[in-house]
Amino acid sequence: MNNFIWYNPTKLYFGKGQIKKLNYELKNYQKVLLVYGGGSIKKISLYEDVIEILKDNEKSFFELSGVEPNPKIKTVRKGIEIVKTQKIDLILAIGGGSTIDTAKAIAVGSVSQNDILDLLKNKYIQKEGIAIGTVLTLSATGSEMNPRCVISDDEAKLKLGLGIWEVPATYPKFSICDPTYTLTVPKNQTINGVVDIISHTLEQYFNRNENNIIGERFAETLIKTMIDIGPKLINDLQNYQLRETMMICGTLAWNGLLRGLNNNGDWASHQIEHALSAVYDIAHGEGLAIVIPAWMEYCAEKDPSKFVVFAKNIFNIKLENKTDQEIAFEGIKAFKMFLKKIGAPQSMKDYKIKNVNIDALVEKTMLGRKTIGQYILLDANDVKKILNIIF
Amino acid sequence: MNNFIWYNPTKLYFGKGQIKKLNYELKNYQKVLLVYGGGSIKKISLYEDVIEILKDNEKSFFELSGVEPNPKIKTVRKGIEIVKTQKIDLILAIGGGSTIDTAKAIAVGSVSQNDILDLLKNKYIQKEGIAIGTVLTLSATGSEMNPRCVISDDEAKLKLGLGIWEVPATYPKFSICDPTYTLTVPKNQTINGVVDIISHTLEQYFNRNENNIIGERFAETLIKTMIDIGPKLINDLQNYQLRETMMICGTLAWNGLLRGLNNNGDWASHQIEHALSAVYDIAHGEGLAIVIPAWMEYCAEKDPSKFVVFAKNIFNIKLENKTDQEIAFEGIKAFKMFLKKIGAPQSMKDYKIKNVNIDALVEKTMLGRKTIGQYILLDANDVKKILNIIF
User: Fold this and answer.
1) N or C: which end of chain B has fewer CB atoms below 10 A?
2) Which residues of chain A have a CB within 8 Å of the CB of B250?
3) How would you list the strands of the sheet with A131-136, edge to edge?
4) With bands split at pLDDT 50, 70 and 90, how would you rate the model's confidence at B122?
5) Are A271 and A199 in contact (CB under 8 A)?
């Protein structure tokens, strides 16, 4: 195994009715900024419950609503303004990854002397931040228990990441994860969540670490479980036990544990997808469902070894009398069948986009780097070929 | 799944040469108390390396050496005395579970108005403590990344636990886990470590939680991996890759992750073993190797259901044309064969102890509780029957 640091100070409250723990967590704070999206939290009465707890605990609070699915810098700036003028000491994100990511960017942007866009461009590491708490309503990004956030610079049409795994500033201090709040997530968002969770795990699974038995087996457990429950959940959206399993998989897929064991992982598919969804404003999960199979087919040609393990351990593909290439592509085919079965998109062709500028997408993927990826190092030419598969 | 809280603020530095990170971690502290055992850290030059780093960083330091395998209250009291008189602000434990456990008890004992014996008897929860750091030299207890410690009250012949999972006081702030330091661990201690790691995982595996797919699969990964590498390692003690795998398994077996997913687990075997090793001063791993199979046989008679899963998933026992009892006992037999294969003790008869007082052991196990365990609730009479199996 490569050396790694594993650090995660978030306190996770998992299960039914854990919202009551907010009473305990609020005791350290006086002024709260609620951050949320389009108002789905009002439909499930979560909004009212949180307001009641805030009032019971005599906290003053302010609100930033309308966080977009791919959250924008201007929304983060609005939040920073409120935090600074109202002297907020807790940012409470109620929602999914976009809402929580916005809270993280506000948290560090509010105490930095630098503009949030500079911070996002990674020119500065911000070690301090306003405290963040979350109430999760969507299983997907794992943002509830990690320090990362992705914000869209909509002027430059770029998605920019922020947050350092060893630095506490952008970790939520606490996250309340009650699967009940995800029972009403619509079908398309549920599909995207399933894809997102599997993709995070796959990115780490495809690595060049040696002797990482535990990292490999833990990743396979998450992938197999999501492949098992995904189709069931799509046809039974209000099933609590399936929602519960999806929620814990989502958190574990991207909270630093697999990252440490698996030497970070590949992440080329995510980098390609971030370019795609920055330009075309498609959902992250949709983009991943299209990019990952193309990435797999391209990379299995170069080195099928890990794809053989994937085919055998995830899909029980028989190995006898087959070449590694054949086994690898049987596994990839099975994975594509799974994506089709849950109703994930198959190709960018479905979006009927005109005048696609592949070179611009390559540039936004590479962002000045000579190569991306770990399992296979990809240069700009490789990325172009993968993009040509999907368009 | 039952509701759970997952919280673990320890920063883990894993891998070769991570001792250099001590330079970074020391920056917050001025006066260090080194805690270590019988001097094995001097044989592998780890002691010299740490002293050099302390001197390079101009820290003043004091030493508490000679921590026992089952650490005693009088040793903890010595440490508390040094911390108080010298105004120590970091306790640096270099060793295995006993050394780290001692550091934890010193950490909270030094700031409490109450005597350490009162704290250990759980009369008071201690929320603050002196900072703890660790350099791990033995894979076994998981103490490097959890808040628990076990100290022996040798006057009363009792083992007493301390440390709350939701309270940071007894978590190490950082732990340096370099498998290199475990390459010279002798065979008998390695055997005990293998047993200890498997036993921690088994205790959590046998639970009454519903729908805990991930908890079950993660636990099985650790158990299967340890059962695979255990015999190889016993015959190849200096194999770095095997030591590396054992070290990460040891940490993951008991750092709160499995505990949360698996609703804490059973732990009756540990409670029986703590009574045993408090009275007879045998190693914890030896006691567990004797108690667990007896606990298994006794409990599988009452409800074989989880033992069937254990037999199937850990040992690939075929299920066809067999009763649940038969499958369960085949699994238990396979586990006993494994323990024999690695050279773990089989029975308390091997120790040739005269005048065994079973009733006193029952009392020390129950400690006033009416029942212990979760998978099967055991009363004093059940515990007596299990003790009669092993003596």
Assistant:
1) C
2) none
3) A60-64, A31-36, A90-95, A131-136, A174-177, A4-14, B4-14, B174-177, B131-136, B90-95, B31-36, B60-64
4) confident
5) no
- What's the gap between Cα A9 and its chain centre? 19
Q: Which helix (H) or strand (E) holds B162?
A: strand B158-162
Compare all CA atoms of chain A with the CA of B168 and give the residue at the minimum distance. Answer: A9
Calculate how close chain A gets to B2, using CA atoms only, in Å: 7
**DSSP class per residue in B84-146:** HHHT--EEEEEESHHHHHHHHHHHHHTT-SS-HHHHHTTSS------EEEEEE---SS-GGGS
The span from the CA of A244 to the CA of A260, in Å, is 25
pLDDT in tens, B272-319: 999 999 899 789 999 999 999 999 999 999 999 999 999 999 999 999
CB atoms within 10 A of CB B322: 15
pLDDT in tens, B353-389: 888 999 999 999 999 999 999 999 999 999 999 999 9
Contact status of B27 with chain A (Cβ, < 8 Å): no
- C-alpha B172/C-alpha A231 separation (Å) is 42
Give me the pLDDT at residue A39, please.
82
Q: Phi first, then psi: what are they for A378, rounded to 5°?
A: -110, 130
| Token pair listed for A68 | 């977009």
Burial group, residue B45, by CB count within 10 angstroms (0-12, 13-18, 19+): exposed
Q: For the purposes of burial, counting CB atoms within 10 Å of the CB of B316, is it exposed (0-12), middle (13-18) or buried (19 or more)?
A: exposed
> Can you tell me the ipTM of this complex?
0.97
Cα–Cα distance for residue pair B278/A55, rounded to 1 Å: 52
Q: Give the three-state DSSP class for A31.
A: strand
Angle, to 10 degrees, between the axis of helix B380-390 and the axis of helix B284-302?
A: 120
Chain B residues with CB-CB distance to A139 below 8 A:
none
β-pairing, B158-162 with B149-153?
A: antiparallel
Cα dist from B276 to A257, A329, B156, B359, whole Å:
36, 56, 13, 12
Give the pair of three-digit tokens for residue A266.
């590949």
- pTM exceeds 0.90 for this model: yes
Asked if B15 and A4 touch (Cβ cutoff 8 Å), the reply is: yes
Q: What domains, with CATH codes, occur in chain A? A: 11-182 (3.40.50.1970), 187-390 (1.20.1090.10)
Q: What percent of chain B has pLDDT over 90?
A: 92
Terminal-residue alpha carbon distance, chain A: 37
Three-class SS of residue A335? Answer: helix
Of chain A residues 211-250, which have a CB less than 8 A from chain B? 211, 213-214, 217-218, 221-222, 225, 241, 244-245, 248-249
Residue B260 sits at the chain A interface (C-beta within 8 Å): yes
